[in-house]
User: Fold these one by one.
Assistant:
Number 1:
Amino acid sequence: MLHASRLRLILKGFCMGTADVIPGVSGGTMAFILGIYSELLSAIKSFDLIWLKSIFKFELKVFVSRPHFSFLIPLGIGIGTALLFFTRVVPLPVLLQIYPEQIYGLFFGLIAGSIIILLQEMLALELTEVVPFILGFVTGFLIFNLVPVQTPESAWFIFLYGSLAICAMILPGISGSFILLILNKYVYIFNAIGYFQLTILIPFALGAVTGLVVFSRILSYLISKYYRNTVLFIIGILVASLWVIWPFQERAYIMVRGKARLIDSTPALPTELSSPVILSIGMIMTGFLLVLALNRFAVVKAGSAD
């Protein structure tokens, strides 16, 4: 029987994988919402030089015990299940075209609630601490307003796509899928995932592993040494991401392999209070209240454990 803690990690991984499929929503953001972001960075960092040396020294005990497999394996199962489910069984990118306001509404509420929770930790801000927030906001806003470009499909560039996408994926606020859209490789990569095209997936995975190893250490260092400034920078990115997550958008699409793909969107206000608009507002409130409830549950649980 599956242990309850592992089942929870699988479900959290599924939520992260679902977020990663949606352009504009970050798996890192979902990890923040679910309260496992620091643990995720620590787990990634557990693949260090000592672990690497154990491979060449045939030290099986170190190879097996040093990485945080008890955390990463169930989380990875959840992420992988979500990626396959939402590319093969229920194509979420297609649903985004049919019900964009409702799906984006849910994630808008989740991210808005996360911002409120993070800001609660940053009470009594000093004037100088506004700077990292502004830098984060400007960085996010510039990235979210980039125009898609044409990029090559050679193995070296696929490796680069993997590195860039995974860095964005673990940084709350910036979506790996959105970066792939900017590089005009969203359909290319997710088709490869859905149909197990190894000539694409292998260099992409190697790039993702490289990006994880390097970027997770940078993020972990910044959080440990400059926690408040790093969190404020992340909050700035999250606030900027609301620009593209706002459910009511004037969207522009291009046709890629016979399918419409989102390339640009501009926030707008609904012109009438129709049923889809009411449902979208309901999804915003659902996401907002859900993340606040999850945070409240985590706080109560932590208090009872003390």
Number 2:
Amino acid sequence: MTRPLRIDGLQYAKWSENIFRQMRAGGLDAVHVTITYHETFRETVLNIEAWNRWFELFPDLVFQGRSADDVALARATGRTAIFFGSQNPSCIEDDIGLVQVLHTLGLRFMQLTYNNQSLLATGCYEATDAGLTRMGRAVVAEMNRVGMVVDMSHSGERSTLEAIAHSTRPIAITHANPASWHAARRNKSDRVLQALAESGGILGFSLYPHHLAGGSACTVAAFCKMIARTADKIGIGALAIGSDLCQDQPDTVVEWMRSGRWTKTVDFGEGSPDAPGFPPMQPWFRDNRDFAAIADGLAATGMAPPEVDAIMGGNWQTFFRNSFSPAASPTEGQAK
């Protein structure tokens, strides 16, 4: 019997051999990893160099994924395909030409914003959401052209809706949950989720405690019931997992994620100012070995095995297949 696909739509761990082995123990066929928060283009290239070294050191565990076919290769060879993504457009600086350069280097996802206003759109922590900027519309078109996924996980409502409407290819919200379940600024309204599903986009459900009702005390049953209710609203085909696992990262990394270079003071962002570090993970999801708990929890809600398999990886695989290749030119396939 063929083992079902298992794909995680977002992680930002402190990478190590131990984590790569846990990915294998958990049966992860592919993982979208963050390689950029506030880094410039050159700093992003340095992060790619670091990943190249991990690929050299652990070729029996991980390799760089570039296309959906690499998920099948990962399954056939007992490894995990690693797909690069950026949680901010800082890596393209103010140069639209770097979209194609970074796609060539393997970047397959890019958020138009992190929490703040960017050159492209508005982040979810800004008081006013002005939507896509002129550059934002141009960059979305270029991302559509080269085969880089528009990710609106940290963006404001208007910006997200405009990205869905403007993009000629389905977008992703790689790691967030419904705001109707838990009203974190990062979570998405029913209006956004409906527009996302109707456009062929995909939502990766986040396991990061600040995105969960009950935080670190959220149970697997509550999490999976939330997924089942979302499926009733917008359909199974738009749903996946984007754990936002930040395993083994020191608390100092949270300051970089939230504050970057834009402020001289500490921006606490999500969570309480009294606890600025990473919140403790819920005991049923500590690392990559625990993905089976989600699958079991989804089955316990009454989902059929094909529905569970779709959420645990099948939907991401379909999305990858439709998203990572350059868009066909207007004359492609026509007789010369």
Number 3:
Amino acid sequence: MCLWTAIIPGMSISEQIQKDITQAMKARDEQRLSALRMVKTALKHREVEKMSPLDDKESQQVLSTLIKQRKDSVEQFRKGGREEMAEKEEAEIALIESYLPQAAGQEEILAGVRAVISEMGSPAMKDMGTVMKNVMARFQGAGVRVDGKTVSEVVKGELSKPK
């Protein structure tokens, strides 16, 4: 959990963000306020596209997309030697992650991948897409957040091991 927010049970992600925007305004925390407004705008944009309110699962998907975009930006800023911009993006990632369930660690991902592979028998590298789909579904079903890129690397590593 991030220092900025404490998720209140029974409150939707959108409601929590609105409450935190108010707190950031009162605290005159411009950087946090700017990031929260950006998150609120992204959620509102998705809501307008869908033409109905978002549930928490849909809100989490939007937030995950925002995190992925920021991680790409961090990489690009570092390549371009813009460390201050990379740090700003990383601060936004931390803020956004505070509204999501805890992400699975490397060990949890590895255990999940191995479990799916053993259930499937002995899949080959050509079955990587199916393995990925099953692993992602398993984590999503359990309400655990995972990074698809990390899962992909673990699946590739496990499938390329000699049998």
